[in-house]
């Protein structure tokens, strides 16, 4: 598989679609790549326009204390990232410079700031909703986006460490939330069809950590809480998740104290779009020259 990954990645580098930084999974994006991202973003907006979601755009970092409360470290410690900064004296600074000059490890003296790297676009949303108080009748719908970080370096270009995620997030009574997810399972098929991509939708699980995590993953699959729209990018036998359809039940509602209009714990669901993965799927299946892409796909992307 690695040879195939390198081949596609090398071609992306050669065409200036992506640019290497020396770190696996961390790439600069060229103009053609960003044009495709903009087209995907516009298409997502078109598919969700009728719903009237409230738009919120998040920075790539979130409040560290809220990140800690979210429980992400309990489930996914292997993926998490935090922001650290120098907080020493002048003497400490001189020692730091000496270590850098001598090629020694110099990050030990840094301390954690109040910022964690955002792991998923919806994570900063729930505390904001909780601060607003009880939900209106029927709940709320949000359109959120963020650059996200997950520490899983790989030469597979579809497994980036920093990437953009756009989500529609529904918060409200269980029947409203589950109906939302089912509707987007249908829309997801239409969305991938508009992009001319081969795909399948299958039950999935999150990469929970450790032995207890394996039990949580099994339960998640058995309950059908997560589905993914899979597109072959590097390996036809192991297609890549480009969209996800998640039902969290009352997990986030209980965690953040979000109440429905009927004074019940709110349920949540989200549909997530991996922006970079969708762009890579398009380059993989339609070629590296966007001028040669099918007219229907170019029209969908407003090229």
Order of helices and strands: HEEHEEHHEHEHEEHEHEEHEHH
Tally of helical segments: 11
| Poorly predicted sequence stretches spanning 5 or more consecutive residues | 1-5
CATH superfamily of the largest domain: Bira Bifunctional Protein, Domain 2
Beta content comes to 25-35%
Please explain how this structure is put together.
The chain is of the alpha+beta class. It has helices at residues 2-14, 31-48, 64-69, 72-75, 90-101, 125-131, 174-194, 210-222, 251-256, 275-286, 295-300, and strands at 18-23, 26-29, 54-57, 61-63, 82-86, 110-117, 140-149, 162-172, 200-203, 226-231, 240-249, 267-274. It folds into 2 domains: 2-81 and 119-300, Bira Bifunctional Protein, Domain 2 (BirA Bifunctional Protein, domain 2), CATH 3.30.930; 82-116, no CATH class. The protein is built from 11 helices and 12 strands. The protein has a 7-stranded mixed sheet. Strands 4-6-5 form a 3-stranded antiparallel sheet. Helix 2 (31-48) crosses helix 10.
Write the layout of secondary structure elements.
Elements: H1 2-14, E1 18-23, E2 26-29, H2 31-48, E3 54-57, E4 61-63, H3 64-69, H4 72-75, E5 82-86, H5 90-101, E6 110-117, H6 125-131, E7 140-149, E8 162-172, H7 174-194, E9 200-203, H8 210-222, E10 226-231, E11 240-249, H9 251-256, E12 267-274, H10 275-286, H11 295-300
Parallel strand pairs: 3-7
Antiparallel strand pairs: 1-2, 4-6, 5-6, 7-8, 8-12, 9-10, 10-11, 11-12
Helix pairs in contact: 2-10
GO molecular function: ligase activity
Organism: Methylocystis iwaonis
Keywords: Ligase
């Amino acid at each position: 598989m690695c040879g195939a990954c390198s081949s596609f990645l090398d071609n992306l580098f050669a065409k200036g679609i992506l640019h290497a930084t020396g770190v696996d999974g961390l790439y600069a994006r060229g103009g053609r790549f960003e044009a495709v991202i903009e087209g995907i973003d516009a298409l997502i907006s078109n598919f969700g326009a009728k719903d009237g979601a409230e738009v919120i755009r998040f920075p790539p970092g979130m409040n560290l204390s809220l990140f800690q409360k979210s429980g992400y470290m309990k489930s996914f410690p292997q993926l998490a990232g935090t922001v650290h900064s120098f907080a020493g004296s002048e003497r400490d600074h001189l020692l730091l410079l000496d270590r850098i000059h001598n090629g020694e490890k110099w990050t030990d003296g840094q301390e954690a700031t109040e910022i964690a790297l955002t792991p998923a676009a919806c994570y900063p949303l729930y505390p904001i909703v909780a601060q607003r108080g009880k939900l209106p009748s029927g709940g709320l719908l949000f359109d959120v986006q963020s650059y996200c970080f997950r520490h899983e370096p790989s030469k597979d270009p579809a497994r980036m460490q920093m990437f953009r995620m756009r989500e529609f997030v529904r918060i409200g009574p269980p029947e409203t939330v589950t109906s939302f997810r089912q509707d987007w399972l249908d829309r997801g098929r239409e969305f991938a069809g508009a992009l001319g991509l081969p795909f399948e939708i299958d039950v999935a699980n999150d990469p929970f950590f450790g032995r207890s995590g394996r039990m949580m993953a099994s339960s998640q699959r058995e309950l059908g809480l997560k589905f993914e729209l899979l597109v072959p990018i590097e390996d036809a036998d192991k297609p890549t998740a480009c969209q996800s359809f998640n039902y969290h039940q009352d997990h986030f509602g209980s965690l953040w104290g979000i109440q429905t209009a009927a004074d019940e714990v709110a349920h949540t669901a989200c549909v997530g779009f991996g922006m970079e993965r969708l762009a890579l799927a398009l380059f993989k299946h339609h070629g590296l020259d966007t001028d040669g892409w099918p007219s229907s796909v170019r029209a969908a992307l407003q090229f």
